Amino acid sequence: MGKPSTIRDVAELAGVSKSTVSRYLNGDLILPPDTAKRVNDAVRALKYQRNSLARRLSMGSSETIGLAIPDIANPFFAELADAVESAAAGFRMGLALCITRNELEREAVYLGWLDTQRFDGLIFATNRPDDGALRRLIGDRRNLVLVDEDVSGLHVPKVFTDNETGGYLACRHLIEAGHRRIAHVTGPVGLFSVRERLAGYRRALREAGIRFDATLVRYGAYDRPFGRHAAQQLLALGKRPTAIFAGSDYLAVGVLETLREQGLDVPRDMSLVGFDDMEFAGLLMPPLTTLRQSVGDLGRASVEILMAALAGERSETRAPAVHGPTETVRRLPVTLMQRASVGPPILRKNSPAHLE
User: Fold this and answer.
1) What does each C-alpha distance from 93 to 20, 65, 304, 305 come to in angstroms?
2) Considering the entire predicted model, what is its pTM?
3) Which listed residue, of 90, 244, 301, 333, carries a Cα 20 to 30 Å from 199's Cα?
4) pLDDT per residue over 124-141, tens digit each?
């Protein structure tokens, strides 16, 4: 048996430095495609057994997929991770959890791991608007599925909730309860789900003949502190809303906290609708009326689509074919969950709502 290959051998065959090979295989360096190919080819040719990663490289599969999410503490992403892990196990695939904190540098590292085959494919979730940098990083990778939020300009498989219908159902439900001054507390300006839910909200207002009032829309983060802050702003208006549609249940919790601090009852003084139907929504006081999107279905659908894409790539390797960029978009339905946080507006004499 010959002497085992070293990292120096790989570097010499690939025509790069030892540190470049080491950093690349560790996932700490993103190389140009042609350079990355030379390194990968050298690893295979020399049967370099640096670690389990090298062994998987030689086999052409890691039997692992990645899930990139901004935050594991958020119940939405925790539930998504649980669903993805369970679905991946059904395909006998492991799961690598990648916490990006919505930082481009961390996203770049995990995307680079696709090139070093630390995992075969990646399910990617972001909840910040993209200025084009993330789109360029992802490029034309075909072993990646976007879930929950879009990155404009990418032709990759995508799994989304029917956000526009959700926004429409939420606002229409409040209108049917008698409300005409309805505020909307939502996420960052320009974010995909924000645009779609706002479009549904505006469609419901338009169909009811209610003029859209931009002063009743508050953009910020999809989190509890912003829900508190937005509610404070809305209550300080000369003409208060009588109802609030929150773009997430986390936002709704923050809104509810501010309302309680100011001595306002839900739904007597303010009606409230959320979005997501997280497990805690039915445990709030009062139980929250919200739009149910199945996070479990999002996770399962993402894994199914990714595995189908990986199977297609392997068959193409055996029988090469020419394909352009493809984009599969799957939309999952939403359901209005009516609980106890919506009621008719109380129009008191000389109140802002009465003066509208």
Assistant:
1) 30, 7, 12, 14
2) 0.79
3) 301
4) 999 999 999 999 999 988
